Amino acid sequence: MTLHIGQPQRRENARRHLAGRGRFVSDLALPRMLHAVFVRSPMAKGRILGIDIEAASLCPGVVRIFTAADLNPRCQPWVGTLDHFAGMQSPPMNILAEESVLWTGHPVAMILARSRAEAEDAADRVLVDIEDAEPVTGGVPVLQPGAARANDAADSNLCYEALLQTPDVDRAFAGAAHVVEAGFTFGRHTAVTLEPRAVVADYDPSSGALTVHQGTQTPYQFQDVYARHFGLPEGKVRVIAPDVGGSFGMKLHVYNEEMGAVAASLILGRPVRYVADRLESFVSDIHARDHDVYGRMAVAADGTILAMEIDDLTRIGAVSAYPRTSAAEGNQVIRLMGAPYRMADYRGKLSVAFQNKVQTSQYRAVGHPIACAVTEALVERAAEATGCDSFEIRARNLIADDAYPHVSATGYQFEKLSHQACLARLRGMMDPGALRAEQAALRARGIYRGFGIASFVEITNPGATFYGVGGARISAQDGAVVRMLPSGDIHCAISVTEQGQGTETIIAQVVADQLGVVPERVSVTTGDTATTPSGGATWACRGAGIGGETALRAGRQLRDRILTLAGALVQTDPATLRLAGGAVVDAATGAPRIALEEIGRIATYRPDTLPDGIDHSLTVAHHFAPGGYPFDFTNGIQGSLVEVDVETGLVTLLKHWVVEDCGRIINPLLVDEQIRGGVVQGLGPAFFEECQYDADGQLTNGSLADYLVPMAVEMPDIKIAHIETPTQDTILGAKGVGEAGTAAAGAAAMNAVNDALRPFGACLTQTPMTPLRILDALDAARQERTAP
Amino acid sequence: MKVLVNTIVNGAPVQEAVTPRSSLADFLRDDLGLTGTHLGCEMGACGACLVLLDGAPVHACLVLAVQAEGGRIETIEGLTETGAVADLQESFHDRNALQCGYCTSGMLMSAQALLARNAAPSRDEIRDALSGNYCRCTGYEAIVDAIAATGRARAVTAAPANTEAAE
Ligand code: FES
Ligand code: FES
């Protein structure tokens, strides 16, 4: 069964990209297509007194200018709350600002012209009169009663709060030999997909059909959103996501601009294209993180972790994102704390606050980097307090590999993880003894190196408990249609999508193994609601685990269908037959009985020669929803080796290690590159990436010249090893892997930097760990030492 | 008002009327349909738009179409057709040195230019040469590996054939 599953199959679709033949939405041009440009609020909060579009509408090439009054009525407003987040509030949002502007970049008018350049020229001529108001851009005080509100349509700045606790948590702290604690700040950053958000909405009034070409991970979700919010029959809405130039969670949220493109196309009956330019991406793509966390850990004298207490304040935008909300990240932060450890008691408090900045929401590894960094930094402090080393304290506290199933203090159920095996493997790879010796020798020469490690769990393969129970119309199931062509080649249309992870390749591998063919004979279609069955698509690391299982089960049904037909044709009991080498073979001897193309030929062109009543349909459809555990957690551990220049604060990343357990590995080539890409997206915000705002709510570094993303020269080589613990919930046994790298890379790096700075007593608790912050930490430590 | 621009694009002469403010990238993508050249920032930072102008990589987002007058432009489509980067493309494919593919054309341009001036670059030199190429998906290591492997393979092919005689 597993001839190709587990093999480093290359990606067939990579060839197109290598030849410059990618098909991105930003490449698409349709007849009569108009180009959209948005006029945006230059201030973070204010009241619109007037918009003068007269001069702009006379500009060459301009076809139409919309303000809220003519565009918004076409669209049902959206509200970013979920029922299972009890007490959550978020005011409704619509395409263009009506009375208030709520963040710098909030769209207030939309211009449609023959070209983007002409639309931009006209945008410069739109006069917007806004009465400035004091924006809410701060932290804790905004939640005090009577504080000025970020969004006057909300009754306070509190979007959502949650409390999670075990009954004995206070007793655990009271009885602890040591309590270690620290406050952490995780900066705001953003996805920076290399292809910006892109949409071409194409409404045909003659047929009533809306086709939306959109760079997104989740075409079905948008089919549903457009149907409901624009009052269209779902069957008349088609969403096509062709090649997507990066997404990482950012392209599955509802944005004003995409809704605007659809509304404008509905009104004008012409294709409308909107492609964000990079400056617009910074003020409209979701941002991520922005958390202040206070954490405490109770530790016994022998280093046993007894309990944690967490207070997380996260600042979102002026509304919560739709349809997944801006509260899901904080919710995961407080639930993932301490997850790798046996720790029995816990209290986690979450406050989600509105402010006048770009909305935050789900981006790769939602919540994980924060929970992991806080937990692992406190574990290091516990190690120091109890005289353990980094490996020893984890060995004492990690959930034992034979102690599953296990329920975490925060209520997560773990089927089976492999923390101890991962720790042992990492120790072998890193050789901490040698690293310590090298560190000591270099310190003597004024060179400061440090290493740090971080254990993690990652949420993958989510079931309906993730969003469905909260009333969100986000599918937890996926579907596949697998068919054999008359030639014996196989086609699979599936609801999971491709953004370069290799989804189509692993689906081909899985299907190939069910049907005894090589993956080259399996073509895969994704990303089109009209040609693939409905499903959740690709997010939260569900492509391989849920998509793969869907394909496997569909493939097996087709296999059975083929064997039944073959049994009739060669007059043999189908139970004595199997598929291999592109043919039906004798199960015992492997001797070929009939080739797939022969079956395809007869079933298609000569069904009259088949026995009466036999089902000759060589197409099966199957949908699969994960059952069993609510999530398939994965686990692993990462290590980081850094060198800090204590004169300049510059950090050199020397090496990074990952040991990861994502269950059954379908394609090791793709898995490793998912991990590497993920690690770099974790190291970016740890050292470079930050959306910096001033007190007026202006983003001061919103361009690719100012916002730093990790470059080749700054990134280390990344060594990867695997432990394989397949989930028993599925036949395939695969779990997700796309977010694992991002989950713990920053945590390991923060521990490494602090290890390097240990001789100075300096300690970083804020990301990104910029040279300036490192020098500040060194200064603070120096002052503390010299203080009387 | 449009102006005429005469260039050689991927080996073929092209005469096209363009608006004076059109960038070379817009000219290639919108007027000639060569969409293998991508736009990631339109300010010379990301490298997605790199093309070869008279053999040297330039940011097509920063160069105006009119500045290419009389120039010889090669895009990924042309380099693919001539086979000039076939080995690099194969190495990238083997090593899975691309995911979404949006940075890939620009990466191939930088790689080709690097290998032309330094046939056997070290890993550090490769990382350095990619300092104007953003990739958000891969984490860069596979790209470095693929370029290094191509450099090694080209060195073998280019090696003088007299080693056999010496045996
Ligand atoms: S688009 Fe030219 S460098 Fe980014
Ligand atoms: S492969 Fe997506 S940006 Fe490089």
UniProtKB/TrEMBL annotation, chain A:
InterPro entries xref list: Ald_Oxase/Xan_DH_a/b (IPR000674), Ald_Oxase/Xan_DH_a/b_sf (IPR036856), Ald_Oxase/xanthine_DH-like (IPR016208), AldOxase/xan_DH_MoCoBD1 (IPR008274), AldOxase/xan_DH_MoCoBD2 (IPR046867), AldOxase/xan_DH_Mopterin-bd_sf (IPR037165)
Q: Which GO terms describe its molecular function?
A: iron ion binding; oxidoreductase activity
Q: Which UniProt keywords apply?
A: Molybdenum, Oxidoreductase
Q: Name one Pfam family in it.
A: Ald_Xan_dh_C
Domain Aldehyde oxidase/xanthine dehydrogenase a/b hammerhead as annotated: residue spans: 19-134
Return the protein name: Xanthine dehydrogenase, molybdenum binding subunit apoprotein
Question: Which organism does this record belong to?
Answer: Sedimentitalea nanhaiensis
Automatic annotation (TrEMBL), chain B:
Q: Which residues form the signal peptide?
A: none
Q: Which GO terms describe its molecular function?
A: 2 iron, 2 sulfur cluster binding; metal ion binding; oxidoreductase activity
Which InterPro entries has this protein been placed in? 2Fe-2S-bd (IPR002888), 2Fe-2S-bd_dom_sf (IPR036884), 2Fe-2S_ferredoxin-like_sf (IPR036010), 2Fe-2S_ferredoxin-type (IPR001041), 2Fe2S_fd_BS (IPR006058), Beta-grasp_dom_sf (IPR012675), Diverse_Oxidoreductases (IPR051452)
Look up the domain of life of the source. Bacteria
Q: Which parts of the sequence belong to the 2Fe-2S ferredoxin-type domain?
A: 1-79
Ordered alphabetically, the record's keywords are: 2Fe-2S, Iron, Iron-sulfur, Metal-binding, Oxidoreductase
Q: Pfam families attached here?
A: Fer2, Fer2_2
Q: Which CDD domains match?
A: fer2
> Which PANTHER family does this one have?
OXIDOREDUCTASE WITH IRON-SULFUR SUBUNIT (PTHR44379), XANTHINE DEHYDROGENASE IRON-SULFUR-BINDING SUBUNIT XDHC-RELATED (PTHR44379:SF8)
What is the name attached to this protein's record? Carbon-monoxide dehydrogenase small subunit
Gene source species: Sedimentitalea nanhaiensis
